[in-house]
Structure formats: C-alpha cells, structure tokens
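Hallway conversation turned thread

IA: we were arguing at lunch whether anyone had actually written out Kinesin-like protein end to end. Turns out nobody had. So, for the record, here is the sequence (677 residues) and right after it the structure tokens. Reply here if something looks off.
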Amino acid sequence: MVDAAECCVKVMCRFRPLNESEITRGDKYIPKFKEDTVVISGKPYIFDRVFPPNTTQEQVYDTCAKQIVKDVLDGYNGTIFAYGQTSSGKTHTMEGQLHNSQLKGIIPRIAQDIFDHIYSMDENLEFHIKVSYFEIYMDKIRDLLDVSKTNLAVHEDKNRVPFVKGCTERFVSSPEDVMDVIDEGKSNRHVAVTNMNEHSSRSHSIFLINIKQENVETEKKLSGKLYLVDLAGSEKVSKTGAEGSVLDEAKNINKSLSALGNVISALAEGTKTHVPYRDSKMTRILQDSLGGNCRTTIVICCSPSVYNEAETKSTLMFGQRAKTIKNTVSVNMELTAEEWKKKYEKEKEKTRNLKIIIQRLENELKRWRKGETVPADEQHSSKELKNSEAAPIIEASAPPPERLSDSEKTQYEELINDLYQQLDDKDDEINQHSQLAENLKQQMVDQDELLASTRRDYEKIQEDLSRLQHENEAAKEEVKEVLQALEELAVNYDQKSHEVEDRSKTNQQLTEELMQKSVTLAGVERDLSALQELSGHHKKRSAEILSLLLRDLNEIGSVIALNDHKMTEMNGGMEEEFTMARLFISKMKSEVKSLVNRSKQLESTQADTMRKMQANEKELASCQLLISQVLAVIYLEQQTAPSSGDSTSEHCIWVILHNVPIVTSLQNWINNFIFFF
C-alpha cells in the first residue's frame, strides 16, 4: 500500500421531474438551479454537481462514476450510493432500465465500462473479477444470489476492513455475466407498493465488484473494491400509507438511515473519538467508505414538489454534511520482495534519524534538569522537529523496530492474528446470540399466542361447562317430570289395559253378531232377488194377457163391423151370445184391473225395498270400514305391544270409545232390518 492521501467525499444532487400524481394534484415546482447550486425557499445549497430534471442517464454516469471506474482499476477502493426519500429516483439512478441503452443507470454502465477499460489496458495485466450481491432487509444481511443465506455476519480482515462473511462470490468475464448476476439478484430483492411508489425498495441493496490485477512481468499486484449501493428511501408513514409488514419494513429502513445520518454527522463534526459505525449493519459495511480508505460519491435524489419540501430540505442538509467528510485513500498494492526491502531500508533510515533526535533531546533534558543552561545553538530546533514529524512516527508505547527480534515479531504477529481471530469469533458469537435472541423472541411470541389461545379455549370451555351444568339441571327437572308422567302413564296404562280387554271382548261379540247379521242379510238379498224375478214374471204375464184381450177385442170389433147387415137377421139368436160375451168382457176387465193394481202395489213395494236396501248397504259399508279399522288397531297393538304399548293401547281405546255409538246404531239397524223382513 502506497502513501495515503486525503480526499473529500463527492456529493452530487439530482432532481427528478414531477410525477403524474404531483401534476394531477397541482403541486408547485420549488427548486431553482444555478450552476452547481440549488435554491429552495430562498436558501442556496452548493454541491459538487447539481443535475436538473432534464439530465440524461449518460450525463449522470459520466459525472458521478466514470472516474471512479478508472480509480478502482488503478488499485483504489470506490463507493457510489444513492440517498433520498422514497420515490425520489434512487433506483432509477443506480439501476434504471437495465437493458435499455438510453435509460440504464450507473450499475449496468459500470459493468460495461470496466471491461472496456480492461480491453484497452496493457496485455501483460491479468484480471480476476468477482461480484457479490446482497441486501440489508430488516437489519439482516440476505444474499441475493443464494436466498438460503438470510442472516450473514459482518467481520473484519487483518487490515480492520469490514466484509460480509459467507456471501456468494461469482467470477465474471464479460459485461453479460455481470448483467446476468444483476438480473438474478434483482428478482430476489424485496419490493412493495405504497401510496408514493408502485415499486418501492424495502431493503438496502449492495452490489460489490472486487477487481484484482497482476502484471505477469513485474509481478506487481493491485486490488480494488467498488461498492454500488441503492439505499431504501426514508418514509413518512402518513404519506406512504404503510401498514402491517410494510410498516415494520419502513421502521427498520428509517432506523438504519438514521444510523447513517449519525455516522455522517459525527464525521462532519471532526470528532472521531467515537463514530457509531456499529449501530447498524449498513454503516458497518460502509465503514471504509465513510472516513476510510475509499473514494466515495454520494448521489442525493430529491423531489421538486412542494408536497415533499420538508423531505427535500432534509436530504439536501444530509448532502451538505456528507460533503465535509474526508477519506484517506491509498492504492491497494502488494509489494514485491525487492520493494519490501527498499521500504524497509527507508524506514530504517528514518528510524535511525529519529533515534539520534531522541538521544539529543534526552541529553538536552538531562542538562535542563541539572540546572544547566543549554545554549540556543545546542538546542533542538523546531524545524528539525517538524522534519522528524513528517516521517512516520512510531507511537511511544511501541518499542523501536530495531529492538525487536525475529521471534518477538513472530510472537506479536501471532498475538495480533489471535486478537483478530478473537474479534471474528466474538462477532460470530454475537451473531449467534443475536439469532438465538431472535429465535427466543419468536418463541416467546409463539408461546404468548399459544397461551392466549389456550386462555381463550379455557374460557370457552368454562362457558361450555357452565352452560352444560345449567342444561344438566334443567334436564334433571325434565327427567323428574318425565318420571312422574311415566308413573301416571303406567297407572293409566293399567286402567286402559283392562278397558281394552273389555272392549276387545265386546268388539269380538259385535263382530260375531255382525257376521251373523251379514249371513242373514245375504239371505234377505237372495229373497229380494227372487221377489224381483217374480214381479218381473207377473208384469210379463199381465202384459201378455192385455195383449191377448186387445187382440180379441179387435177381432170382435171386426166381426161386428163385417156382420152388421146380418144383425137384423140374427138379432134374436145372437142377443143371448152377445150378452154372454159382454159379461165375459166385463169379468176380464175386472181381472185386468185387479192385476194392474196388484202390479202397482208390487212396484211401489219394490221401490221402497230398493231405497231401504241402498241405505242399508251404505250403513253396512260404513260398519265394515269401522270394523276393519278396529281390527287393524287391534292387530297393530298386538304387533307393537313390546315397544309402544301405551300409545297404541290408548289409541285403540280412543277408537273404540269414540265409535261405540256407531256400533250400537249398527246393531239396532240390523235388528230393525230383520224385523222388517
């Protein structure tokens, strides 16, 4: 490593155009630009460069990053990061549209520019380029190239430079390889939708390019690291509308950005007794970029809307503080044996001169203590002292290098290595304890949730138990009432059983009588049928007699008409015969009349009999239906007596009791019918 030199952190300010929501809202455009100065509300803010909204991506790259690429290839460390509130254009500045030649940002342009420079350099140079891509999400380092690595630790190397231990490193040999890695990591990055940004970054992403080069002829080795950081934006929750997990992310983002602001403030004040790098993972990683061995450029991104005026002023103040930070940069070079020897001789000469000066000062101090007066020409001059201070002075607590033997040097080197190892072990232990604390915290949360759930279940069970107890008491009362009702039913059942037996006997007797009456009724129906046949026969006979009489009368009338002229001749002889005929006709008329009357009487008797028969048939059908119902109930009682004897017996009894009048009327009707016939 060559001699170090101081350089200030460069701060560039970029304003984006008004977005659609700001234009729709009618927000006022507040910044005024004048060379490298921006004026907000009458107050000027001066930076290394100010980019108005119409600045192209290429112009931003040429100003902010092009020189850093050359510095990294010359063996320096470099850092470029974008800072600003959410939706201010940080990701657009750092990444842009990765595969659009006009709108791509700093990172894809650097990937191309690095290889363009390498192709134009000395052919004797051999390059090894590695890239890493990780994010800091919820203050945990997450490897974007291996999502299984979710909580990586930050360690320090032998030069006290922080690095992320265990992070995936990919060797690349072309710009396309770099872009493939960027695409892969970008697909794993955390983003979310808020009221101010449809693709709001929820984590700080860091793309690290590690370049090592070696001259195969001179064996000169240089190395440089380039950190490209896209910070998540600070958020005002009232504007972004964050809630739930997005709100937790916003809290962690604001916390880490606050830690970054504290580091910037401590470095800007110049009080380097304590700089709080360890307050967050992000500031720990950027420790070398802020006040260390690194050429750093910060791009602060701002909104031109009056709606975000407070956040814009805060961002500009951050940039002004960061502009005062000074880094001590030096080339990362591995010296050859010859160079180490020359450096050793040079340091040895400086040490010898210092030793002489110390000896003279000790002698001069002894003389002063003895009370002697040291002439001015013998005193050590301040000029010599300043010249000696220009050389690298060894701390008073450290012994002169010449006094250290090889074994002591080895011992001290081993001691230093052990101390560094202990620091790494402590970092690992802290990380493990942190993870354990997180796990225990999560377990406590789970246990609290389980306890709350158990408590809710217990309360619910208590309520159910109380309800069941009340239901049990009510059920006991119901059981008592049911038992009383059963006792009453048992008593009633015994009574009804006796009644059913009596009614069954009565019903059986009635059934037998009904069967007898049915037989009698069948006989009566047969007699009635015979009478009907006899009546029909009499009618037929009467009709035949009347027909014969009418025919005889017609014949007599015809004879009388034909033999009317003979009446005078036969008057004497026929008078007697005519008288006899008249008597016969008179007798026949009386017989016909009596037959007609008898026929009418039989017809009326038949009509009455038919009416009575129809009424009796209807009553007989109703009685048969009633008997079949009673028999069905009795049969059902016999079939279901073991299971539902009470209800069936009661129903049977009810049917019999309610139909006893009908049975009685049936019996009376049968008796009347028999009496009629």
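OS: looked through it. The chain is about 60% helix and 15% strand.
IA: good, adding that to the notes. Residues 406-562 form the longest helix (157 residues).
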